[in-house]
Amino acid sequence: MVTSSSNSRLIVITGPSGVGKGALVKELLKRHKEIWLSISSTTRLPREGEIEGKDYFFIAKEQFHDLVKNGGFLEWAEFAGNLYGTPRKQVQQKLSSGSLVLLEIELEGARQVRKSFPQAFQVFLAPPSFVELERRIRGRASDSEDAIQRRLKRAKEELKAQDEFDSVIINDDLDEALRDFEKEIGFPID
Ligand code: ADP
Ligand code: 5GP
Question: Which atom of ligand 2 lies closest to the CA of 85?
């Protein structure tokens, strides 16, 4: 059986916007079909190419607030002016059936999960430098200047919190970061 270093079936990956969480998770899922990635709900508008139910469940603010009220989220947070949350039911079902569950969420959400699931294994993905982080956010060319500025400001706060995590992985070379991540969560390295 595949287990993480902490023997947990719940893995959290956090890191500043643009660091490459999405890119790393995509490669990880290609290589390990046994990992189930939780699809979050968000009030953010879809970026070009994003698909409903695959990247996010794109919902209205009212619906999001109703879900919060009814306990529908395992955790939720506001990030750069939008709301994001992890649907509770699906994650609980997957964990009960023994799946290895991965959450890709921001700092406040990771802190909430640390309280509700202290056994979860939490990884922080860090950029090689702040300059490179900004280059990646801008290179993605999918956010407005205002959104980029908010994300960069938030990134400074998030980077300060990396010591809270079970593991910090620097995403300089993506392939190396992927291998480091696999090692940390206990996958055999080929
Ligand atoms: P996040 O999900 O953390 O916001 P993304 O996965 O969208 O970040 O990555 C942001 C940009 O950086 C994308 O264009 C991605 O292709 C690029 N990127 C990711 N990892 C690396 C890397 N190791 N080196 C160079 N560019 C990278
Ligand atoms: P983006 O708008 O770039 O897709 O995501 C912005 C930030 O929100 C990223 O750091 C991403 O990890 C985080 N995020 C995505 N889904 C969730 C979620 O369900 N909960 C929390 N707390 N953060 C999320």
Answer: 19
pTM of this prediction? 0.94
Question: Is residue 125 domain-resident?
Answer: yes
Interval 64-76: pLDDT, tens: 999 999 999 999 9
Q: Is the CB of 20 under 6 A from ligand 1?
A: yes
Give the domain extent around 139: 9-183
Measured in residues, the chain has a length of 190
At 58-115, the pLDDT tens digits run 999 999 999 999 999 999 999 989 999 999 999 999 999 999 999 999 999 999 999 9
Q: How far is the CA of 66 from the centre of ligand 1 (A)?
A: 33
Residue 170 maps to which CATH number?
Answer: 3.40.50.300
